[in-house]
Amino acid sequence: QVQLVESGGGLVQAGGSLRLSCAASGRTGSVYAMGWFRQPPGKEREFVAVISWGGPSTRYADSVKGRFTISRDNAKNSGTLQMNSLKPEDTAVYYCAARRFAGLRTESSEYDFWGQGTQVTVSS
Fold first, then answer.
1. 21 with 76: CB under 8 angstroms?
2. HSE-up (13 A, CA, CB side) for residue 95
3. Which residue of 9, 59, 109, 123 has the fewest C-beta atoms within 10 A of its own C-beta?
């Protein structure tokens, strides 16, 4: 099992920045990729970004390309999502997720472990 704990959410004005962190513990050696998803109010959970745990490969949703950056620190068993130029439509609960198998997938069903989520609110 892998446990994931997100932190860093909060309230920010449009145009501002936030940095989310995801601390992983447990059998982290089984993790192939770490992803971020979000669930806006009243909507389905959606893919944001994913990074391979052992290399620099990344993938982003079109809606966040050029504004968000995903990274990971293997030594610290952690991942981060740097969010810049935030917009009100970025308001959501953000979830960290881990996947055991190869592939930078965008479907939430392809991920095996999930954090509890952290709220990000962007005011206009």
1. no
2. 18
3. 109
